[in-house]
Amino acid sequence: MIDAREHFQKELQKLNDLILKMGGMVEKSIFRSVEALKKNNPKLAKEVIDEDETIDRIELEVDDLCLELLATQQPMAIDLRFITTGMRIGSDLERIGDLAVDIAQRAEELAKLPLLKPLEDIPKMAELAEQMVHKALDSFVKRDATLARTLWTDETKADSYRNLVSDELTDIMTKDPVTTPRALPLILIARHLERISDHATNIAEDVVYMVEGKVIKHGPK
Predict the structure, then answer these.
(1) Do residues 162 and 194 make contact, with C-beta atoms less than 8 angstroms apart?
(2) What pLDDT is recorded for position 219?
(3) CATH 2.60.40.1760 fits 4-212, yes or no
């Protein structure tokens, strides 16, 4: 017969596994949404959009499990922080999934038009965003606050890429307004990728809280 503590530990492991499953799916969504853009593939973009429903469903499962554990187990210290952090990470991953859908929708729009210019910085930005999400989840699995803190530097890089893309495309539109339908979706994609990086940083901040009990969201990093 499983005692209460063993059952609690199994439920914590289930929460951990759900978050990692969700994380793997959103990493895949980021990659595929940008691939749809690069390869002018609306079918791939549609697949990203359709699979978002599964990510949403897992987030609800994470929420339900966290609330159940908080209500029935009265966890203390590190276990309490793990559960509350798990709930927040689930929310950030769901938003990342939504942003991947936004990118896929822009890719669908652009598939109908000739590409304005060769894609250079957006694929680099997408790779950085994927790496940040992966690194944030890795820090969660390893309970590694030091690894989590490395995302602050990555976030600065993501901001720089966003500014570079936005400035270049805004200049193109200003000189030739006819290019707006092809340039504006790319600016939005860069913003979506920068927001994904922000959510990865949120996850890293939550990991620091989980491991060290320090709230750093609104303070100096």
Answers:
(1) yes
(2) 57
(3) no
Cα separation, 142 vs 69, whole angstroms? 22
The model's pTM: 0.93
Domain ranges of the chain: 4-212
Nearest to 83 by CA among 14, 129, 146, 37: 14
For residue range 15-45, list pLDDT tens digits in order: 999 999 999 999 999 999 999 999 999 999 9
From residue 109, alpha-carbon distances to 82, 105, 180 in Å are 41, 6, 13
Residue 220 confidence (pLDDT) above 60: no
